[in-house]
Description:
By secondary structure, this protein is an alpha/beta fold. The protein is 45% helix and 10% strand.
Amino acid sequence: MAVQRAAALHLMLLVAAAAASVAAAGAKVPAMYVFGDSTADVGNNDYLPWSIARADFPHNGVDFPGGKPTGRFSNGLIGVDFIAIAMGFSRSPPAYLSLMATAANRSSEAPRNMTMAAAAAAYTTGANFASGGSGLLDSTGSTISMTQQIEYFSDLKDEMSTRLGAARVSDLLSKSIFLISAGANDAFDFFSQNKSPDSTTIQQFYEAMISTYDSHVKTLYNLGARKFAVINVPLIGCCPYLRSRKPSGECVEQLNQLAKSLNDGIRVLFSNLSLEMQSMKYSISSAYELVSSLIKTPHAAGLEEVKSACCGGGRFNAQRGCIPSSNCCNDRSKYLFWDLLHPTQATYKFAGLVFYDGPAQFVSPISIKQLVEA
Length: 374
Ligand SMILES: *[C@@H]1O[C@H](CO)[C@@H](O)[C@H](O)[C@H]1NC(C)=O
Ligand SMILES: *[C@@H]1O[C@H](CO)[C@@H](O)[C@H](O)[C@H]1NC(C)=O
Ligand SMILES: *[C@@H]1O[C@H](CO)[C@@H](O)[C@H](O)[C@H]1NC(C)=O
C-alpha cells in the first residue's frame, strides 16, 4: 500500500511537471499525422453514412468546448489531442474526411480534384485519418481500414508535393510525427470469431498482426515518415463491456494475455525496423501499462471508479453503448471509462502527459517528447 501511494505521488508530481513544461506553446514539429481506431478518431466516421461505429451524438462531447459531440468516443478531448497540445498544437489535427468527404468517394473524380487542393493546404500541419472500428488487418471492421488510411495519406502527400515541391514535402514529413493507435479491434474480433482458440490459431493471428504492422510501417516509411509514435494495445480485457459479460465482473484474462503478447511483438518489431531503416525513430506508449496502473492506483490521476462506464446501461453501465437516452454520470472526472470501451477525457489527459514525457514504464525506448526533439 505504501509502495502504491508512493508510486501514485510520483506520477502526480511528474504530471504536474509535464503540464508546466507544456504551457509554453508553439508547435515543435511541422505536422502530426494520425492513424488508427476509435482511440484516435476525431470525427472521420461522421462522414461514413453506413457506419454504426460513431460518436457524433450526445452524451459524447458533453465536456468538449461548447459541449458538442464531434465524433470523438469520449466526453471531451482524447489522447491524441493532449499529445498534440503537448507538442504545441491547439489539439489533434482535423479529421481527414472533414475536408475530404467528397474526395473520399473515389467514384466521383471531379469534386476530388477541387477538394484535394484545398485539403493539401489545410493539412500541411497534419491530418487525422483514424477511424473507429478499424484495425491493423483489412478484415477488421467495416470503416476506414489502415490500408485505406495510408492510401489517403499517400494521396495527400502527392497533392502537397505538387503544391510545395517534392523536396520541401519530404523534409517536412521527415520532421513530422506519425502517430499510430491500433490493434485492439483486431483482438476483439479475433475473440468474437474464435470462442476458445487453440494455441496454433492464436499464433497465426499473432503472426498476421505483426507482419501486417511491419508492412504498414514500411509503407509509411517509404512515403517519407521517419518519426513514429506508437500507442500499443490497451488492457482490453478490463474494459467495462468485457467485465459486464463475466458473472464475476472480473477482467477477461485471455484477452489481456493476447494484448500483452501482441505488445511484446510490437516492441521487437520496432526495434528490428529501426536497425533495418537507419533514419527511423520511434517511441512506444504503453496504453496497456497505463490502464493497468490506473486500475491499481486510480488516485494518481484523480480517478475513483475504474470498473463501470460513466455513460451506458446495464451491468457496469456497459451492456449498452452511450446514446442520448443513456444513464450518464455527473462526476465524469472520477471515471476511468467513459463508455463500454473507451476512456474518459480525464484518463486521456493523464495518458497524454505520461506518454509525452513520462517514465520508461509507460513510454519507451524514448518518450514522445524525445522523439519530437530527436
Ligand atoms: C459516391 O459517389 C457515387 C457516384 O457519384 C454516389 O452514387 C454514392 O452515393 C457516393 N457515395 C457516398 C458515400 O457519398
Ligand atoms: C484538376 O486536375 C488536373 C489534372 O489532374 C489539373 O490540370 C487541374 O488544374 C486541376 N484543377 C484544380 C481546380 O485543381
Ligand atoms: C526481429 O529480428 C530477429 C533477428 O533477426 C528475428 O529473429 C525476429 O523474428 C524479428 N522479429 C520481429 C517481430 O520482427
